[in-house]
């Protein structure tokens, strides 16, 4: 465990706790989802705040391994949300303002592009982490 401990920035702990509380309060408020959006997606968004807050908090405390785990869980929960938006069932309305609007096909195309771009970014970060660890 000692090898996972590094000097942290304690000022980040309060910031992490604020994110954790935002996720918990959102869960307790019992928010309603938009029509066609599954309830689990709302809970995944709430979990994203909790995971991110825990990652920030552990980073501030200098517990590197747990900060990495919760950083990964934050990215994974965001991926679930993006992937549902890009590939899940139902209609999507991405942008509608005055005279500018986007068709559902264009909306899905951009969501899919963003999801795949995010996937590639995560894979690159994983490969970098593996390469650094092997040195």
- Report low-confidence residues grouped into runs of 5 or more: none
Number of strands: 2
The total of helices stands at 4
Spatial ordering of strands, largest sheet:
1-2
Our estimate of the beta-strand percent is under 5%
- CA-CA gap between termini: 20 Å
Helix content, binned percent: over 70%
Helix/strand order, N-terminal first: HHHEEH
Task: Describe the protein.
The protein is mainly alpha-helical and 135 residues long. It has helices at 11-29, 39-61, 64-87, 104-134; strands spanning 96-97, 100-101. A two-stranded antiparallel ribbon has the order 1-2. The chain is globular, with a radius of gyration of 18 Å.
Secondary structure layout plus pairing:
Layout: H1 11-29, H2 39-61, H3 64-87, E1 96-97, E2 100-101, H4 104-134
Antiparallel strand pairs: 1-2
Helix pairs in contact: 1-2, 2-3, 3-4
Give the tags.
globular, 72% helix, mainly alpha, two-stranded antiparallel ribbon, 2 strands, 135 residues
Briefly characterize the structure.
The chain is mainly α.
